Each structure stands twice: as C-alpha cells, then as structure tokens.
Amino acid sequence: MMHKIIRNVGRRGVLLILFVMIGVASFAQNFTVNAPNVVEKDEIFRVVYTADAEIESFTTPTLVGLDLLAGPTSSRMTSTRIINGKRTDSYEVSYTLILRANTTGKVSVSEASATIAGKVFTAKGVEIDVVGNNTSASSTQTHQGQVTGNAPAASQSSRNRGEISSEEIFLRLSFSKTKVVKGEPIVATLKLYTRVPVAGFEDIRFPVFNGFWSQELETPQNINFVRENYNNQIYNSAVLRKYMLLPQQTGEITVDPAEMICLIQVRSSGGARSMFDDFFDSYQTVKKRLTTSAAKIDVRPLPSGAPSSFGGGVGEFSMNVSLNRDSIKAHEAGALMVEITGTGNLNLIETPMVDLPADFEKYDVKSTNNFTNGANGMKGKKVFEFPFIPRSEGIFEIPPVEYSYYNISKGKYVTLKSDTLRLKVTQGDAGMQGGQIMMGVNKQQVVNLGNDIRYISTSSPRLAKKGAFFMGSPLFYIVIALIAVSYFLADRLLARGAKLRGDVKRTRNRKANKVARMRLKQAQLYMKENLHTPFYEELHKAMLGYVSDKLAIQFAEMQRDTIRETLEQKGAGEENIESFMTLLDDCEMARYSQSGGAGAMAEQYEKAMETISNLENRL
Amino acid sequence: MKRFIYILVFVLMAQLGYAVDRDSLWVRANDAYSLGEYSKALDIYGHIEKDGYVSARLWYNMGNACYKLQEDGKAILYYERALKLDPSNADVKHNLEIARLKILDKIESVPEFILVTWLKELRNTMSSDRWAWTGVILLLFTALSVLAFRFAPRRAQRKVAFVFACLFLLLTIASFLFSINLKNNVRRADSAIVLVPVSNVKSAPNSTGGNLFILHEGTKVNIIENVGQWSRVELSDGRQGWMLSKDFETI
Q: What global pTM score does this model have?
C-alpha cells in the first residue's frame, strides 16, 4: 500500500518535472537585440542580444563602421517569483557587445544568429545613427559627471547659476501635416526633448486645439525616454501626448502653445568642494518653464462642387448597403443597413440620404461605431441602420443609396453608389400587429410628398399676334356695326309690317264697299229715278245674287233657311245675318206695298250697302 | 384677276406654313421640356415669341422653364405676363404662387377697398377677348329686347322687354369696360419685375442719391415715370424710389 503511494508520488514528480521542462523549452523562442537608435561618435555603447533559454552557440554579427571593444560576453540570469502561490520562472541569457562608432552617419550591426535547443534563431540587424561629438553636453552618461572636454564654458557657468538653456531641454509639438483640407486627420505629438536629468513635472498645460475635433491617441502613464537624434544632437525624448486632430474650420488655425514646468537636477559645483563632495555629488533642483512655439495649421476648405450626397467624409471609404431581410411581412419591422468602411473622419460623417418608399413608416436612424484611432484617422466601420415598417404588401424598390466623400489622395470627391434593392413585402398576419388587433382598414391621409410647379401646357398654344385684342379691333367694330345695322333693318321691317297690317283692314273694307256698290249699281239708278218697285226688285235680286256668288249656292236652292244656315256655317255673325234677313224681308214687303218714298229707299240702300260690306269683310 | 387670285392663294399658303412652323416649334419645345432640357425649351419658346406671337400658354411654359432653371425672377415675370393675358388661368396662379415662395422680399400691400377687390376679381374671371365677345352677345340681346319692347303686341310683354333691355344694356357696358380695362392693363406696361439679385432703390435718379431700400430678384414694382436710365418705382406698400431701368423688366 505504502510503496504504491510513493510510486504514485514518484510518477507525478516525474510528470511535473517533465511539464516544467516542456514549459521552459516552450519559452525558448525569443532571441532579440537591444541597441540604441542614436549614438555619438566615439561614444562607447552596448548592443545586447537576449534569449530566454540556454544558447548553444552564438554567431557574432559583422559590424560596419563600428569598433568592437569587448565581447561578446555572456551573462545569465534566473529568477523565480511566487505570487499568491503561483510560480513564475524566468531564465535569461544575454550576450553583450561593447562597441564604439568610428564614423558619423549610419552604421550597422548585421543579423546575429544563435542556436537554441538545436534550432537556429536570428535577431534582425540594427542600424544606428551616429552623430558628431560636437555636442555641448552629452546624453545619458552626462549626469554621471562625464562632461566632455569641449563643452562650452558658458553653458557650464550658466548651469552653475541654476539656468538651463532652452537647447538642452525643450517641448516640441509636431504635426504630421500642416497643410490639410477640412476634415483631414492630423496627428499631433507633444514631445519633451532633454539632455539634462529631469526629476519631475509641474503645472502641465496641454495644448488646446480650437477649431479641431481632437482625440488623444496616447496618454502614457510612465514617461519613457528614448534616445533620439534631433538637429544632429542626441536628446532623450519622451512622448507626453499624441492627439488625432480633425480640422473643423478653414483658414489658418493657430494652436495655443502647451506649457509645463520641469524640475531639473543640476549638479551643484559650489566653491567649497571637499573630496567628499566630489565623491557624493550634491544636486540642486532647478525649475524651468517650457513652452512650445505656437503652431499654425493651414486648413483649406474642401473644393467646391461637392455632390449633393456629400456627407462630410474625408478619407477613403467604401459602402455596403443591405437589407436585413429580402422578404418581409407587412407590419413587420425591417431595417436597411448602410455600412461605411474605411479610414478617415469616420466619427464625423453624416447619415446618408436613403430614399425609402413613401409608404413605409420610418423611424430614427441608429448608428453604431466600430473603429480604432490611428495615424490616418479612424479606421473601421460605421453602420447606419434605417428601421422601417412597411404598411402594405407588394414589391418595393429601394433606389440606389449614394454617398460621397472627399478622397484626400485623389484630391477629389468620390461618389459611392449602391445597387437598387428589392424588398418583397408579403401579406401580413390578418389584422395582427404587435399583439394588437387592428379594426377595419386604416384610413390614411394623402400626404404631400413635395411641392412643385405644375407641368407645362401641351395643348394648342392659341398664339396670337402680340398686342392684338378683339376689343377695339376692326373686327370688333364690324361686329358692332353689323348688330346696329341689323337692328335698324329689323326695326324698319317690323315697323312697316305693323303699318301694312293696319292697312289690310282698310283695303278689305274698301273692296267690300266696291263689291256692294257694284251689286247695288242698278238699284242706285232706280233709286235716283224714284222707281219704287224696280228698286226693291233690284235690291232683292242683288242681295240674293251676292249671297249666291259668295256662298256658292245654286240660285234655285235659295231658301231663307238655307241662306241662314250657310251664313252661320261661314261665321258671318248673328248681327249681320239678322240685318241681311230683315233687309230681304223688307225688300219683299216693299215690292208689293207702295209705302215709303224716296227717303225710305235711300235708307234701305244704305242699309243694304252696309250689310253687304260687313258680310264681305267677314266672309 | 387670275394673277390676283394666285397671289392671294400664295399668301394664304404662306400664312398657313408659318402657323405650321410655329406649331412644330411649340411641340419641339414641349418635348425638350419633358426631357429636362429646360434651357433648350426656353430658347425655342423664345423663337416663337420673337416671331411676334404670344399667348398665355406660351408665357406659362416659358415661366415653367425659367423656374426649372432656377431663374425665379424671370419665371415670375413670365407668369405675370401669362396672367395679364388670361387672368383666370388656375395653373398660372398656382405656379406663380410657388415661384413667389422663393423670393426674398416680403411687402405688405396696402389694403384695397373691398368693392374694388370684388370688381377686380370679377374682371379677372375672363380675358379681354372673352369679355369683348360676351359684350357683343349681350349687345345682341339688348337689341332684341329693344325690338321686343317696341313691337310686342301686349302691354305686359313690352314692360318685361323694357326691363330686360335695360339690364342687358348695363351688362354690355360693364363687359366692354372690363375688356377695355384688361386690354389697357396689358398695353400700359406699368408694372415690372426686378430681375437682378440685388438692386438699390435711391432717393434721386442718379447714382449719388441716397439708398432708400434694397429690392431682390422677383419683386414686383409699379413704374411711375422714366427719367433717362432711371425709373421711379412704387412698391405695393406705397414706398417710392428711383431704380435703374435695366434692373427690371416690364410685364
């Protein structure tokens, strides 16, 4: 039993060791080189090759323009850390070369290779900038007291008085570009350059970018100094802030300077210097106010002639338009997605114009950003979501979405255009909409979608000579004259007609009298001769003759009743008939009686005359 | 005699030919407009106008073309001209209304006596020619009524005829007055539209006169008198001033 446990433990131990071995072996994949970027001529510096596993063989790189003073010397370091019971082992082997540059300009250390656990690893070659050693004060090493001999005395003395020239420490705000168009991203870097030891900062005022949309790209918590060649001198430089700027105004924009107070350690070299002072350097902290120079950035406006679909985008973009579904039921929500991908001022682009069918209910546009900040502006994509609910079924076409941006590299506007999208809207669930029962048909107002002038008139133009009017024209006067003339003619005609109508009565009377007179001609003769009987015979005969002629009655059929009947039929009038009959009777009576004289005869004659005239008029 | 007939026929044919030519121009211009070539359409309409032939429809179409070309001042000018020839045209009124939305100047017009407004509205229901023809027909009725009055056989009929005659005579006179008034409105050319974007109205007819106010494109002014290159204009709110004659065009 016991030996079993021990055996188990033993086996586990072996396993454990194995794992550890594998773990160590698996780390052995790193072989790196560490060298300064910039050195001074004749400066002694180190190039260190580091691996995290035992190196079996190391091939020294070839050096150009460099003297190898010592090395490669190897050193090993092992460390074990246990934090909260978690153990971390690290193992490091480094080969150090001590070098000195013997020329100015670019020197290089070629690739070096090392064999680790049978595998060959290569560290890439490095190029080092060598600057002449005419510098007044030297770099990192200077604070060790290694002031080179040719340092100007003025600098030395000024430093003794606690003053540091602005050549030795300064702030610099640099821009990736100073001539840009509106909306073009710029990277601004605030850097501290120093050749003196810096103990700390106070009262930092970062630059204010008025007229820009700015975003901090780097805000380092720890300030890491890097050796850098600036104006052919070596400085320790550190990035304090890095900003991305998008100009929002045009013209020459001044960036307000940044300010800070630097605490600088200066070795005091007072008069009373003992040998201990020399040994224990005494330092004095000097405050120095650093200011960047005011920078000016020339922002040109975007060229004119921007397409109407221009959405303020500057950079390089592509667009993808899609529907979240190709087919949708009426009263269901759908969405059109417009995805703008690329680099540029993605955060500032406006919502593209999308022409959804007028019958769709539209909602507020949602936009999602997914981009990272970089030196060329934002990189990534911005998605605009246009939610909608179709209210009726059918196949709808969504016209192409156009979106224009300003392409900086091409220097012109580029218009992106999508394809026409088709959306099939099928009949929605009967009356159901979001759990709500719809009652009847939803009446809609006819909405005015736009306001435009009416279309031109296309029917006959009805052209007329300019300034020609019917009013006052010859035709007008002719028409008026025609009316006047026809009026007068009509008037005249009517008047004459009335007169003629009046005359007919008289003529007819006249005619009737004439007839009567003719008939009574003989009777008149007898009356003049005063022949009594012949007069009455003639009168009687004339009257019967007249009636017989007038009424076309045969003389033989002449009876009183026949005459009366016929006269009545012809409408001779009761009065006339009566007087006629009386006259006939009188005549028959007078023929046989001798009563009356010439007076009676004249009277009868007149009577007969009148009766015949009347009958003539009536018949 | 034969020769005379030939000449007559030839002249008539030529007249007909010109008419056909104008009609084809009209169709061509309308086609250009419908294709969106507004400046071409305007050009062809202009040819018809240069020929000396106009109509409310021609002015209306020219106004539309100008509106589409964003020349709002000219559009208003042409619409106003169309309205002068045909004051009752609803399309012209509608488009003029829309074109006026785009002009800058807002002038409060002096209110008119309500009867005058009514009379004007009544007058504007027909064009001058139509009023003239209406008058002619009414005159005919008047004549007939007078005849009826004179020759009707009965007394009652004559009375009615007399009333009608008086009524028709009044209407005839009114129609002729309206017609003459509309005609004179066209002939007088006393109103104008500002065609330059900005025009200074000065207190005197010379460039040294002080500026009184500024008018913008599309505003209507009444011309009172002309002195050299300057014109005395009046706004519908009663303000007056002197303006360069080339800054506007009469309707």
A: 0.45
